[in-house]
């Protein structure tokens, strides 16, 4: 299973390993640099089926920190294009980008809000800060909401031009889209708040706008938090209901993570702790899903796929430790996987 190709639109992933999006906090003015070139490039040499570039701000306020990646201008897209080209011409990996807006969780460093003079005023669906000691975010007007949707659309256009194979919309971890989804962070009384249908509207309008920029050669994923572990908050039933609707809006895969919107929420963490959420969304909404969270072993990953709990395996911290996990797993399992031709002498040990 791990080495069985899978197709999303015309995009074929050679295996089911995905480098999960991970902020590296290493940009100036949102620009990718040599670090990112080596960082993402090396995972392509490790045989990873899909590399997902870190949360990338669709506008300056969409970043979590001043050092986060951005794609709100052409210069940023050009730097990213260099990485995309390397991956495409030197490996069999596909490469995607996670488009994000931090909303009320922006303007921070090391998870602590920084003063407005060093950062910026944050924005959100409602005047509720993530933590009570933080500044009250500015509430988006309907006009602002439409402008944010356009920011995602413009970012998608740049990403397509840069050659990315997959666009992922970051709807998880308490960032702007998630802030709209949750009744605990969204108490609006207009058409973007209140009922489930109203709270998911922002995401659906982003999905539709982004899809206008895509074609059969670029697929669309959405990352969600399956639950936010809070009473009366966004929960797994909501996620299943949302996933069914996302499927109707031409979303190719739901990447199921969890948490991030409620400060202090208790998260039961264990090996594969979010896999049950992926499994439920996959089975009940009949969509393709990605599983993520404390997946560190080849056997464990294979087991998740065999049980039908997910279609893709997103790995984050383990692929930082081991950029070659995909190729290493193929050696262990006797499967085929890209391995740089320059390294062929290392295919046989001794
Ligand atoms: C350094 C770091 C940065 C992260 N940045 C992002 C991000 O940009 N977007 C995102 O959706 N998740 C982000 N995450 C979460 C990971 O993608 C993943 O969901 C989480 O780490 C659980 O997977 P793991 O147990 O394999 O690390 C980040 C995680 C780490 C460790």
UniProtKB/TrEMBL annotation:
InterPro entries for this protein: Aldolase_TIM, OxRdtase_FMN_N, YqjM-like
Molecular function in Gene Ontology: FMN binding; NADP binding; NADPH dehydrogenase activity
Keywords, alphabetical: Flavoprotein, FMN, NADP, Oxidoreductase
Transmembrane segments: none
Keyword rRNA-binding: no
Cofactors that this protein relies on: FMN
Keyword hit for Flavoprotein: yes
NADH:flavin oxidoreductase/NADH oxidase N-terminal domain span: 2-326
UniProt xrefs under NCBIfam families: PRK13523.1
The protein, known as: Oxidoreductase
UniProt source species: Chryseobacterium piperi
